[in-house]
Write a structure and sequence with these properties.
Blueprint lengths: L3 H23 L4 H8 L3 H8 L7 H4 L2 H16 L4 H16 L4 H9 L18 H20 L15 E4 L9 E3 L5 E3 L2 E3 L5 E2 L4 H11 L6 E6 L2 H9 L4 E3 L6 H11 L5 E4 L8 E6 L2 H10 L2
Parallel strand pairs: 7-8
Antiparallel strand pairs: 1-2, 1-6, 2-5, 3-4, 6-9, 8-9
Protein name: DNA-binding protein
GO molecular function: DNA binding
Pfam family, one: ThiN
Length: 299
């Protein structure tokens, strides 16, 4: 009796780890770095590098495996992909390849011929799980934050209250479904400072703006607040953004909602301030990277 999990452990994982270790080494990571990223020993990395670990050519040459290994190597090497996200993506691919008639199912049937008589599917995990979706949002947010950190001059757009770049899951309903930077992004002696890794549920103000916009018809899943300036607003209009003013002295959800209901194509919201209220611009976008790119275009 042999379970499909044994195929995964004995053939799939050694093959993927070997491919991934090689790709990471090609991207300049040391043997020690690769061991740390993959959560394995340096001796194991050495064995993979010297071909001392048996791999499966059919798995190694599968286009989906090759594509995922390349994407994960890029993300892990750049720091845009976490180990948990890599684990989830590999797990999802495993479940896809375990489906009846697919690669791992074929290998399993070859190892246990009697299975060929049963058209059973071994898929047990949902590829669109909440955990996977959340990790994708965080990964996108990290990339957006890196764009801002590397954009010389972004500090000139950070308001006194600080900026926050946020992104939400597709079915977001409250701030726990929106990821942002704990403590916001600040200008510290002319340097863009992101105090901590992004998390869900840590942004209230900007999160409520994107949630209100979505509730009333906007397709936006990400947003950022920057300092208000008439020239900045003019630049955004020139770039083709639909802009609209709202009154932040009122309930923000209602004010933003009213604006979006009038025109759900609006991608820039602004308010010119009031007693104790700093004037701000809010840029909406389809994801964190596109929002960050818009900000970078203003510098």
């Amino acid at each position: 009796m042999q379970f499909v999990e044994e195929i995964v452990v004995d053939e799939f994982l050694p093959t993927v780890r070997s491919l991934l270790a090689g790709e990471l080494r090609e991207r300049g990571l040391t043997q020690s770095d690769v061991a740390d990223v993959l959560g394995i020993s340096q001796s194991a990395v050495s064995k993979y590098a010297h071909g001392d670990v048996a791999t499966n050519d059919r798995i190694a040459k599968d286009e989906r495996v090759e594509t995922l290994v390349g994407e994960l190597a890029d993300g892990l090497a750049a720091g845009d992909t976490t180990r948990i996200q890599a684990l989830i993506e590999i797990e999802v691919l495993i479940r896809e390849l375990e489906a009846g008639g697919d690669l791992l199912a074929q290998l399993h049937e070859e190892a246990v011929p009697d299975l060929a008589d049963h058209g059973s599917s071994f898929r047990i995990h949902d590829p669109e799980s909440e955990l996977r979706t959340g990790e994708r949002v965080l990964s996108s947010l990290r990339r957006g934050l890196r764009i801002l950190e590397n954009s010389s001059g972004f500090t000139s757009l950070i308001p006194a209250v600080g900026s926050n770049l946020v992104a939400c899951v597709p079915d977001a309903t409250d701030i726990d479904d929106v990821a942002g930077v704990p403590g916001r992004i600040f200008d510290v002696k002319g340097r863009t400072t992101v105090p901590a890794e992004p998390e869900f549920g840590v942004s209230e103000h900007v999160a409520n703006v994107v949630l209100a916009a979505r509730k009333h018809g906007s397709d936006a899943t990400a947003a950022i607040n920057i300092a208000y300036d008439s020239d900045t607003l003019a630049d955004l209009t020139e770039q083709g953004h639909a802009t609209a003013e709202f009154d932040e002295t009122d309930d923000i959800a209602s004010s933003v909602g009213a604006v979006i209901e009038d025109d759900d194509d609006v991608t820039v919201l602004y308010q010119t301030g009031g007693m104790g209220i700093e004037p701000l611009i809010y840029i909406l976008g389809s994801d964190a990277e596109s929002v960050a790119d818009t900000v970078r275009s203003l510098i």
